[in-house]
Amino acid sequence: MIAAARSTRLISLLLFVFFVPNVVSTANKAYPKHWGEPPMIQTMDLRSLPAGYGEGSSTKYNWIVSHMKEDLATKHPQRVVNSDGPWPELVGMDGEVARQQLLQDAADSLELVDIVADMFVTTDWQVNRVRLFVDGENKIIEVPSRG
Question: d(Cα 34, Cα 13) in Å, to the nearest integer?
Answer without folding.
Answer: 31
